[in-house]
Amino acid sequence: MVNILENKLKEKISSLIEELEIIIGYSESKAPLKINPVFIKTKEEIDRLIFNNLCVNNLATYSYYLSADTKGKIGIILKPCDVKSIIQLISEELLIKNKIKTIVIGCNGIIDYKKINKAVNYQKIISAKLDENNITVNTIDKSFNFKLKDFFAQKCYVCNIYDNPPYYDEFIENDLKLNLEKKKEYEDIEEFEKSGLEKIYKFWEEEFNNCIRCYACRNICPLEVCRDKCIAQLDEPHWQSHKINSSEGKFFQLIRIFHLAGRCTECGECERVCPANIELLKLMKKVNQIILKLFDYRPGLILDMKPPLLTFKNVEQNIKDEELI
Amino acid sequence: MEKLIYIKKESLKNFLEKISKDYDVYLPIQNKKNGIINFDSINILNENYIMNLKEKTRQSLKFLFFPPYESLFEFEYKKDIKNPEVTEIALSKPGNSNLREKVIFGIKPCDVRGIDYLDLVFNSGNNKDPYYLNKRENTIIISIGCSIVYPDCFCTSIGGSPFNFGNANIGLLDIGSDLIVTKLDESEKIKKFIADYKDFFEKKDMDDETENKINEIVLQSNKTCSTNWKKINPENITAKMESTFKEDALWQEITKKCISCAACTYVCPTCVCFNIADEQKDKKGERYRCWDFCTNYYYTLEASGHNPREKIYQRYRNKINCKYNYFIKRNKNLYCVGCGRCIDVCPVGMDIREIVSSIISF
Amino acid sequence: MNFINEGSKSLNVKNKKEDVKIVAFLCNWCSYAGADAAGTSRLRQPEDIRIIRVPCSGRINPLFILKAFNLGADGVLVSGCHPNDCHYSEGNFYARRRLEVIKEFLPFIGIDKRRFSYQWVSASEAQKWQKVVINFVKIIKEING
Ligand code: SF4
Ligand code: SF4
Ligand code: SF4
Ligand code: SF4
Fold this sequence. Notes:
The complex is a heterotrimer. Chain B has helices at 12-22, 62-65, 109-122, 130-136, 188-196, 208-227, 234-244, 248-254, 263-267, 312-331, 341-345, 352-360; strands spanning 3-8, 24-31, 37-41, 49-51, 69-79, 87-92, 102-107, 123-124, 127-128, 139-144, 170-174, 178-184, 202-205, 274-281, 284-291. Helix content of chain B is 34%, strand content 24%. By secondary structure, chain C is α/β, with parallel strands linked by helices. Chain C is built from four helices and four strands, in the order E-H-E-H-E-H-E-H. A four-stranded parallel beta sheet of chain C has the order 2-1-3-4, sandwiched between helices. At the A-B interface, strand 2, helix 7 and helix 9 of A face helix 9, strand 14 and strand 15 of B.
C-alpha cells in the first residue's frame, strides 16, 4: 500500500522536476525510527524519495533560508499540517508565494518516536520495522511489537486536515486514511493546569535544569527565521545572560514563545529535537489556546490573514479590563 | 599462572556505597522520567534515578570538568567618599569549592579518550587552566569496556578500541557475573585505593573458561565496532581536508540539511569552545565562561558586522576541519573519539561518518 | 515567590515579606503624568513601586515583564492611556492584546496571575492612580503571605 503512494509521489515529482530548481523530500536513514531530509536536483535522485509514518520532520523549516539562496522555484514535500507553516510564512510576507511549490501528500498520521523510546524504557533502539498497523523495534537484547495507533504524534489525534490541506499547489491523495479515535484539543493542557501553581513552577524548573541552550528548538522551527539575529545571543543590548542554567533556559524559552504567539502551528518540531527531552510543545499549545480563546484565531489556516498580535480591534470582545479600584 | 583481580557484580552496589564514604562518586545515572543518562553524583540515586552502565551518557564527561557555565571571579567597584576620584576594584575568586577526591565510575573508553584530549587543551605545556585542573585533579577514573557496541559507535575507525583504557586508572571488563580488572595504574594512589577496598577486589587464578569469555567479548566488540565505519588514517585525512577546503559546492551539498544548532557540539566530549562574558549590575558583577559552538552564526561575527563564516556550510566545514584536520596537525590525533553522540542527537540526521566519507571519496 | 534567577544570585536579594519589589511600566503621556500629578497633589502612595517610564504602552515588549519577574520582582504593573486616547492613536490597542496574553499565560509557568496587572490611567486621574497602586501592593503582599 505504502508503495503505491510512494510511486505516485515519484511520478508527480518526475513531472515537476524540470520546472523546479530543487526539491526537498524525505529519504531513508540508517538510524532506526528516523528519516532524513533530502535535497533533490536531478531525475536520478528521485528514487531516493520515500513517504511513510516516520516522516515526522517538517520540511517547511528549510523554505525560508533556501528561498533566499536559490533563484528558481523550490518544491517542498509536505504533510497537510506542515503546509500550515508555509501559509503562515506567506501571510507574514516572509516567503514569496510563487517561489515555493507545495507538494502535499495525504497523511495517515505520523509516529512520535519519543513515545516509542518511552515504551521501551528508554533503552537504545538499534533497529525497527514498520508495517501498516504495527511497528517492531529491537533493543540490544529484546524485541517489542507495538500497535501503531497508540504511538501517533499528539497532533494527529486532533487532526482534521489530513486529507484536505488548507493550501497546496499539488496534492497527492493517500488511500490510507487517518483512522484514530479523536481526542479533545488541549485536553492535556487542561489536565496539566490542574496540578496547581507550585507544582507547575517546580515542574518547569526541573525540566529546564536539563536545557543546555543548544538552540535546536529555535533553529528547527519553520517560523523562527530570525535564528541568526536572536535576541538571546546578542551582547548589545544584553537582554539575556549567556549562562547555561535552568532559569536562563526557561527565559529563553519564554522569549521564543512570545515571539511565536499566534504564529505557531504546533508542528511539534521543537519538542521532537530537544536533546534534553523537555516538553516544549506544552508551552506553545497553551499560548495558542489563549489566542484561540481571546481572538478566535488559529495560525496557519488562511493565506492573507494577519496574526492577531499584529493587529487589533477598537472593542475587544473577549478582553475585560481588570478593576483594581 | 596469572592472578586475576575482579569485582563481583553483586557486590558492586556495596562497593560504590563504600567508596562514596571517602570519595565523591560520580556514575552514569538515568533519569527514569525522560530517559536521559548523565554523569551525576551517587547521592541522587533513588527510585527515579537509577544507575545505567549499559549505554552512553547523553552528555559526555566534559560536563563535570568543563561545565556549561562557570563563574571565573566576581568584582566590585569601591569608592571612597573622602577620595571620590579613586575607584578600587575588589576581586573575589571562587574558592576551591571541593577538595574531596573524586571517583568517576563506569566511563566508556571513548570518554576516557575524550578526557585525554581535554587535557591536551587545558593542561599541556604553558596552557594550564586552573578552573579545569581544580576539578580534574584528584580524580580516580574507573572505566568499563564496552561489551555492547551500538550502531553509532565507531571508535575502532579512528584508532580507539572498546577496551583501550587510555589514561583511565582502572579498566574493567564485564563478563556478566563479574567485572574483571584488565588495567591497573601503577601509581601509589591506585595501589592505596586497591588496598583500602581489598575486600571488594577479589583474586583468583585465571582459568580457561574466563580467558575464553574475555577473548570472545573483546573480539566480538571489536568486530561489531569496525563494521560501523571504515578505518580512517590521520595522515591521509588531513591532506584530503586541505585539498577539499575550497570546494564550496561540495560542502554546500553535504551540509544542506544542517540547521546550525549546538546539539552536536554540546554533547561532544572533545568540543571545548567557550565564550567569556562580564555581567554587572550597579557596582557588582561577575565574569564567567560558558560553552560556545562553531556552528553558531555569532561565533565569528565581527564587531564591524562582517561575518567571515556567514553560511552554515562554512561553519560546519570548520567543525569538521577542527576535528579531522587542525587538531591532528597540532597534536597528532584525530579530535574525535568515535562516540557517536553527535549522530544520536542531531535533529536532522547528519552523520559525521557520512560527511567525512563523502569528503574522502570526493 | 521564588522566581529568582539562580544564575545571578549575586545580583539579587530575595525579598522579605514586608518589603516587596514591584516594577511599574508607565507610558509617558498619560499614566506617568497621572502618577506625577498624584505626587504633586500629595496623595500618599506605598513606596514599594519602582516606576519605569516608556514612550507608550505599545512599547512594552512582553520580555520586559518576564525579565522583571526573572530578576525577582514580586509584581509587575503596566499602565497606559485609556483605549482611544493613545498619544500615538493605536499603541495601546496593540498593547492590550499582548498584555492580556501574558496575563493568561503566567499561571502556566507557575506565576500567580494576580502578580501582573495592566491598567488605564490618564494624566488627570491622580486619584485613580493612587487607588490602583495601593490595591496592587495590597494584593502582592497578600500573595506573599
Ligand atoms: S496532524 Fe494530521 S496531517 Fe499532520 S501528521 Fe498528523 S495526521 Fe498527518
Ligand atoms: S532544544 Fe531543548 S536543550 Fe536545546 S535550547 Fe531548546 S529547550 Fe534547551
Ligand atoms: S549537524 Fe545536526 S546537531 Fe550539529 S549543528 Fe547541524 S543540525 Fe545541529
Ligand atoms: S565528533 Fe561526534 S563522534 Fe566524534 S567525539 Fe564528537 S560527538 Fe563523538
